[in-house]
Each structure stands twice: as structure tokens, then as C-alpha cells.
Amino acid sequence: MVRIGKAPAESEYDEFPRGRTTHDAKNKHFNLFADKCILKRDDLIAAIRKEFHLPKQTSLGTDSHYRCHRCLYGQALDEE
Fold it and tell me: What are phi and psi of 35, to 5 degrees?
């Protein structure tokens, strides 16, 4: 993300909400695992689906590895 100018060079990897996608080839199904800061925003989910060409039937879920610094360190989401 730094290389393509989507994140500042001085940022830490856990500073921003993040996630991953997986594909179950046998069942032909996609999953999107992301930070709850991302999952609560329909506009971001739509942008991610568009960028990765994910179908509407993609399952959404959280994963303990994908939490932003606010969630990791206990800051409330509305404290911006």
C-alpha cells in the first residue's frame, strides 16, 4: 500500500483497519475477513467487493488477526 501511495510511508502495519479474502474452490465461495471498523461501513465493503471482484454472496466475518490499533488497544470507535 505504501508503494502505490495508498498509505503513508511512516505508518505502522497495524495502524489501519485491515483484512483478507479467501476462496473455497470446492464450494466456489468467497469469504471476507476484516476488522470490525471496516465491516460496519457498507461503503467500504462495497469498495472492497468492487476492487477484488467479489460476488454479493461473499461471506463477511471477523478474525482476531485483523484489528486496527484502536480496537487492539481498547479505544472506542467513536473517539476520532
Answer: -60, 145
Whether the CB-CB separation of 35 and 75 falls below 8 Å is answered with: no
What pLDDT sits at residue 3? 82
Burial of residue 17, with CB atoms counted within 10 A of its CB: 0-12 exposed, 13-18 middle, 19 or more buried: buried
Residue whose C-alpha is closest to residue 12's, from 70, 78, 76: 70
Q: Residue 19 in contact with residue 38, Cβ under 8 Å?
A: yes
Q: Three cell numbers at 16?
A: 489501519
Share of the chain above pLDDT 90, in %: 34
**Strands 59-61 and 19-24, sheet pairing:** unpaired
Identify the CA nearest to 12 among candidates 69, 73, 77.
Answer: 69
